[in-house]
Every structure is written in structure tokens, then in C-alpha cells.
Amino acid sequence: MPLSRSRLISGEDLGAVAPALKRYADDVITHDLWTRPGLSLRDRSIVTVAALIARNQTAEMTQQINAALDNGVEAREVSEIITHLAFYSGWGNAMSAVAVTKDIYAERGIDTAQLAVADRFPLPLDEASEGRRETAVEAGFGAVAPGVVQYTTDVLFRDLWLRWELAPRDRSLVTVSALVASGQVAQIPFHLGRAMDNGLTQEEAGEALTQLAFYAGWPNVFSALPVVREVFELRTD
Amino acid sequence: MPLSRSRLISGEDLGAVAPALKRYADDVITHDLWTRPGLSLRDRSIVTVAALIARNQTAEMTQQINAALDNGVEAREVSEIITHLAFYSGWGNAMSAVAVTKDIYAERGIDTAQLAVADRFPLPLDEASEGRRETAVEAGFGAVAPGVVQYTTDVLFRDLWLRWELAPRDRSLVTVSALVASGQVAQIPFHLGRAMDNGLTQEEAGEALTQLAFYAGWPNVFSALPVVREVFELRTD
Amino acid sequence: MPLSRSRLISGEDLGAVAPALKRYADDVITHDLWTRPGLSLRDRSIVTVAALIARNQTAEMTQQINAALDNGVEAREVSEIITHLAFYSGWGNAMSAVAVTKDIYAERGIDTAQLAVADRFPLPLDEASEGRRETAVEAGFGAVAPGVVQYTTDVLFRDLWLRWELAPRDRSLVTVSALVASGQVAQIPFHLGRAMDNGLTQEEAGEALTQLAFYAGWPNVFSALPVVREVFELRTD
């Protein structure tokens, strides 16, 4: 797909249009943000790719998916991030990401044998926790949109979330990153709590927000901060 | 416009990048979602096209506008959905949709004779209801942004909404779908109430949300659900 | 970059797909909106370009950045708007704008000598006001996301906002326009207050909303209106 490639911005182009922005790119992003402790390089790539897919930003995606693969994210995991975000950021966003990723896989010689296959080994389900979620959502919205409630149970929590191709902690990190990056503040409490249940630390969550400030913009992060603080405060761990 | 076409994702491409997503596309979306009762195929297409335009997703638009035309949406109605969403999702989104649709009309041999012409026959206006809206908006925001208040009356409610090229119930369905798809929760109560006044049933609204879960992403729908429930509860019909 | 150009919609294309929309474009937007008093042509261009960058709408950007340059926005200012919005609407949005602007500068023979250079003359900082902001943000979020808090001080308020390439009042107009255009209602009070401190009048803010109704869509503006009204009411000037 020549589209994403033709829109790739070189450092030279950036310097020709916005020299100050090139300086920020070099000094602040490349040599500072990406080298910060508190969140691994692999996690920073997961956060960044999730933000770009959630915001449908194909222009930056080629570079960042390649960086993710260089930073230790497996191709299988990239494919699963796209699959996950088809549901958590809309089908069209996933299709744009597929178009970009298809070319990257072709260039890198990645074929389907290396990718997710039919999920023969679903992860174990915490029936008690999922039962509470189902009861609450059914009580709240079962009469409003029964189809949404049904698919949420059958396709998301009893299927997608149990796929082994992405660890639950990473899947949660993808989800929370996408929510922040698309301004979905109301959905952060449930999924940030779940992310921390799945092993994401408070420090990592704070650094994910730092990464997102640059890749999803300051306003999205400042709108998320009060909600994130409240989630942190309400936890007893 | 070769752009949208070159970004069209084939089933083969999808299978090569994200085999699991291809399985969801076939099993859940094609063979389940689109065949559900409660909302006609034509309405599902209207909801889906409105969501894609509101989210500016040209990659998926070619396929879905073609599907809409196949599912009984008239070309005149497609053009009017774009016209309507120029106001309800921003001018640039409409221009992207025009670029995609131009090629579709060329391929299908649809010319302007089949499209909307100058609106010679405006629909009747409910002066009492519109008067209440004008009074409330003028009182609330007339001193803040008089231009917005004036255009809302003159261009939207006394012109655009009276165009016969799209039935009021369908125009409302387009509006509500676009609001949910772009996270505009605060504007849902007025327009969902208007949609139901215009004939949209509660069951259809619930199924529209189900359709939107897939095409606008789960978070947008879960953020809309509490507001939709409240609209349902406050109505006496 | 042929992308943006190939997606440019001509009046003829628009008339072929949506004749009514062409009529609105001519009658309401070109001959009415853009000629309204209360906000200069230069300011309308700043608002419009900021909205398009914040919404990542490259299809419309070529036309509107050219219009901005015709309306008295300096190339240096266009580059600085992009630089500013890299932080306030996300890195990827700025990169898309760079791709579009690179071609425009090439066509117009604008080279780096005319653009922003290293910021040798930072604007004076109101230490008292900035100190209050830092204390409040540190108290609120210093323990949640220390990286965000640090970059907000060091890179945004003690660096980016002090750059002379864009007047503080214009920088504020860009920021507020981007917030409204991307639905970031929660961040409007701080930045609209700052914009008015920087010289933006209430009438100009109201007209900026009118401009944004068309370029960012009615729902974004109606969601912003109650917040804008409250900012106006709380000010004593």
C-alpha cells in the first residue's frame, strides 16, 4: 500500500516545514521520552501503536509498528492488538491498521505461520468476576440494547479477552491506551482497574500517560488524569 | 479517486495480517450482526454509513456506501446523508465522503438527475416545537455565540431539516448514529428524543447501538448507553 | 505529496455528488460565514486551520492552509501552529499537517529562511501565574503521572508557550479552537481564560465558535457552549 509510505515524514521534511518541531522530536521525544525508566521500550511501543490505531493515524503507523517489532513486540502480538482494537476502537480503524501492517509484514517476510492461529488454547476465565460484570451490565442495559449486552459477553469477555495471542496485562494496556487516546474517559475506571488486576503497576500506568501526552495530545491526558487518580486512590493494593 | 480503492482491504489481506479478525468478520459481523432482527438491512446501512462519515473513515466507506445502495438506500439519500453530516460532523468529513462517493456514482452510472435538486418542497415545520427550541437556545447561548444561534435556526432547523430528500426519521437516525460514533454524548438526549418523535422505535435505537458497537467501537456505545437509557425512561410513550 | 491534492474536492465534484451541499458552500459558507464581522479573516483562517489539524483532516487542509497564507497568516506562523498542535492534538496530527504543508511551501517558494528559527528570544514569563499553575498541577497529579507534570512545565509552559513565532493571543486561539474541534470540553475553562487574559475578546470567542460550527460540526460547538458561557460569566472583565 503506497499510501502510508508516501506520507512518511522524513527528518529532512520536518526540518523544512517546522524546524522547531524537529528539535522537539530529537531532543524531547527520541532522546528523552523513549529512554525514561518506569515503562519498558516494548511497553512504550504497545502504548504508541494502540494510540495510533485508536486515532486512525496511518501516517505515523508504519514507523511505529516497525519500531514495535524492533522493540520486542511479536508480529503475532501486533496482529492481536489490531484484532482487539477492531472492537475497542471500531472496525474501520482496524482495517486501516491491516492495510499498513500488510506491507510491513511483506517487507519483513512475516507470514501467517508466525501469526495468531485459531485460538485453540483459551486462557482461563475468572467466572466469579465475569459473572459480576455480566450481572451489572445486564441489569443496567439489558433492556436498552440487548444485542450490545449479548455480544459484550459472548464475543468480548468470553472469547476475545481469553485469546492467548496477547497476555491479559498487555491487552489491558492496549485497551487503556486506546481509551485515553480517543477521549473515552468514562470507560477508564473499569479498564484501568482490570489492567491493574492483570499486573499493570501504578508507575507503568503513569508513564503510559506520559507517552500518550505526546502521541495522543496533552488534552486527552489531562482529561484522563482526574479519573486515573481516582482509580489509584480507590485501590487498596 | 484511487485513494479509497487502494486502501480497500480484501478478505485475503485481512486473513494474511489478522486471521482471527477475518474469522470475527465472517462469523460475527457478516453472518450474525447484519442478519439480526429489530433493525432493517437498509437502516443498518444508514447507521453504518453515518458512523463512517462521522469518523472520517474513508478506507471503509467505499464498501459500505456500495452496500447501502445495494440495501435500498437511494443515491439521493446517500447524497443527503453527506449533506446533513456536513453540519453534524464537520465540513471536512463531508468533503472526504464526497470524494469517495463521486467514484461510486461514476462506476454505477448515477448522475445528478437522480440526486437531490433544489429543495422546492420543504417539509412542514412544527412551529410550536421549533419555537420552544429557538427560545431555549436563544436564552442559553444568544449572548455567547449569536452566530451559532442564528445559523442553527436559519440553516439547520428551518432549512436542512425540512429538506424532503431524506425522511425526518432517517435524518434523525443519521444524526443519532453520528453523535454516538463521535462520542458526542451530551447531544444525544435532544436528538434521540427527536428521533423517537420522528418514528424511531426503542427496539430500533437499541439495535442501532448494537450495530455501532462494531463500527464505532465498544467504548463509544458504552458511554452512550446510560444516556440512551435515561431518554427511554423519561418518555411516556 | 500527491495525496492531499488528489483528494481536493472541486466545486464541480461537489455539485455532482451533493448539489445541495454545493449551494450551502456558496451561499452560507463562502458568502456569509467568512464575511461576518466580529472576527478577522486572518483569525477565521487560524481557527479553521487549527480545527483541521486537530481533526487530522488532510483532505481540506491544502485549501485552508493556502487560504490562511492568502489571509495574512505568515508561513512562520503556520509552521508554529503545527508545532504547537503537535503537543495539543498529538504528534501524528502534526506529521500529517507537515506532509500537506511541505508541498504548499514548495509551490509557493517558501524556504526555511522564512520560517521559525531556534527560539533565541523567548517571550517573558509571568512567573506568578505560572507558579500557581505548577503548584496546582503538581498537587493534583504529581503522584499520578510525574512525567506528564514535568513535561507540561519544562516543554510546554516554560518553552513552547514562550516562543515568539506566534503571538500568545494567537497561540491561545489555536489552542481553544483545537480543544473545541476535538471535543475536549474539560480543558476549555483553563485555556479560554488564558486566551482572554492574552487579549481574545468575548465577541471573537463567540465568532470562533460560529466558525467552528461549520468546520468541526455542530455537536462539538453545542457541547462547548455551556462551558464557554460559564467562563464568560465568571470573568469580571
- List the helices and strands of chain A in order: HHHHHHHHHHHHH
The CATH class label of the largest domain in chain A is Mainly Alpha
The CATH architecture of the largest domain in chain A: Up-down Bundle
Largest sheet of chain A: none
Question: What is the fold-level CATH name, i.e. the topology of the largest domain in chain A?
Answer: AhpD-like
Mean pLDDT of chain A: 93
Q: What is the terminal separation of chain A in angstroms?
A: 47 Å
Low-confidence spans of chain A: pLDDT under 50, at least 5 residues?
A: 1-6
**Biggest interface between protein chains, with counts per chain?**
A-C, 50 and 52 residues
What's the number of domains of chain A?
Answer: 2
Assembly form of the protein: homotrimer
Based on helices, strands and strand pairing, what is the structural class of chain A?
mainly alpha
**Helical percentage of chain A:** over 70%
Count of DSSP-assigned helices of chain A? 13
What's the CATH H-level superfamily name of the largest domain in chain A?
AhpD-like
Count of strand segments of chain A: 0
Radius of gyration of chain A: 18 Å
Strand content of chain A: under 5%
Keywords, separated by commas or semicolons:
homotrimer; 237 residues; AhpD-like; 2 domains; 13 helices; 0% strand; globular; disordered N terminus
How does this structure look, described?
- The structure is a homotrimer of 237-residue chains.
- The first copy, chain A, is mainly α and 237 residues long.
- Chain A has two domains: 2-28 and 40-113 and 163-234, AhpD-like (Up-down Bundle), CATH 1.20.1290; 127-156.
- Helix content of chain A is 70%, strand content 0%.
- Chain A contains 13 helices and no strands.
- Chain A has helices at residues 2-6, 11-17, 19-30, 41-54, 58-70, 75-88, 91-108, 127-141, 146-157, 168-181, 188-197, 202-216, 218-234.
- In chain A, α10 (168-181) crosses α12.
- Chain A is globular and about 55 Å long.
- The N and C termini of chain A lie far apart (47 Å).
- Residues 1-6 of chain A have low confidence and may be disordered.
- The interface between A and C is large, with 50 and 52 residues.
